[in-house]
Design a protein that fits this description.
Elements (H helix, E strand, L loop, with lengths): L2 H6 L7 H16 L15 H21 L2 H14 L10 H19 L5 H9 L3 H11 L5 H13 L11 H9 L9 H18 L4 H10 L1
Helix pairs in contact: 2-3, 2-6, 2-8, 3-7, 4-5, 5-9, 9-10
C-alpha cells in the first residue's frame, strides 16, 4: 500500500512517531533504494523510538495482509490487463504498473471520498523531531542517516501527495515512479492512454474500494 493507505489505519492517533513509522519503510526506499533495515524486533528505552518501531511493524502487517488478499490479486491483474494496450513498446513491466497503479488509485479514493485528510498526515510528519529520527536510524543500523533526513525535509516541503487529489495526476505519479527504473518509460501518446485507463478503472473501483480497508482492519 502507498503512504495515505497506510495512514488510514492510524488516522485517529495523536502519536506522530507511530504515524511516521507506518510510512518509514517506503520513505526510506524513496530516499535510497539500497537501504535495508529491520528494526521491527528491536527494543529501545526511548518511547518515541519505540513508537517508530511499532509503526514500522504496523506497516509490515498491513502490507502482508494487502498483498495476500484476493482484492489485490484480482485488481492488480485486471488493471494490468487494461493497461496492456498502452504499454506496447514500453520497457515497463505490466505487472509492476498494475501493482503500483492500484495502490495509487486507492490513495486517490481515500482523499476524494474524505476518508483521510492530507493536512493531518503532513502535520504528523512535521511534528517529529529530526534528532529522534536520526537516533532511530542509527539504532536500526543505518550508516548515513542524513541521507534520509535530507530527503525527508524535501518530502515534507513539496507536499507531493496533494497531487493525488486529482485523479488525472495518478498516471503522472506512475510515470515518476517508473522513471526511477526506466529513463523514458512512456511516449506522450502512451501517457494519454494511461491516464484514460486509470480514470476508467478508478470509477469502476470506487463503489467497493473500502472493502480492502475493512478486511485489513479486521485482521490487525
Amino acid at each position: 500500500m502507498n503512504f495515505l493507505s497506510h495512514f488510514y489505519f492510524d488516522r485517529h492517533t495523536n502519536n506522530c512517531y507511530h504515524v511516521l513509522g507506518t510510512v518509514m519503510p517506503d520513505l526510506l526506499k524513496n530516499a535510497d533504494k539500497t537501504i535495508v533495515l529491520h528494526p521491527e524486533h528491536l527494543t529501545h528505552p526511548d518511547k518515541h523510538i519505540m513508537s517508530l518501531i511499532g509503526g514500522w511493524q504496523k506497516h509490515l502487517d498491513v502490507d502482508r495482509h494487502f498483498h495476500s488478499s484476493e482484492f489485490f490479486s484480482h485488481h492488480s491483474h485486471q488493471l494490468k490487463l487494461a493497461l496492456l494496450p498502452a504499454l506496447q513498446g514500453s520497457p515497463v513491466k505490466p505487472f509492476f504498473l498494475g501493482h503500483i497503479g492500484i495502490e495509487l488509485i486507492l490513495d486517490n479514493l481515500l482523499i476524494t471520498t474524505g476518508k483521510v485528510n492530507v493536512d493531518d498526515f503532513y502535520d504528523h510528519l512535521r511534528g517529529c523531531d529530526d534528532q529522534i529520527i536520526t537516533d532511530f536510524l542509527n539504532f536500526s543500523g543505518m550508516k548515513e542517516p542524513q541521507k534520509f533526513t535530507t530527503f525527508f525535509d524535501g518530502f515534507k516541503r513539496s507536499e507531493y501527495l496533494r497531487t493525488y487529489e486529482d485523479a488525472s495526476q495518478v498516471a503522472y505519479a506512475l510515470k515518476r515512479i517508473c522513471m526511477r527504473i526506466w529513463r523514458d518509460p512512456f511516449t506522450r501518446e502512451q501517457e494519454v492512454m494511461l491516464s484514460e485507463i486509470i480514470l476508467n478503472y478508478r470509477a469502476k473501483l470506487e463503489p467497493a474500494f473500502m472493502e480492502i480497508f475493512d478486511l485489513i482492519s479486521s485482521k490487525l
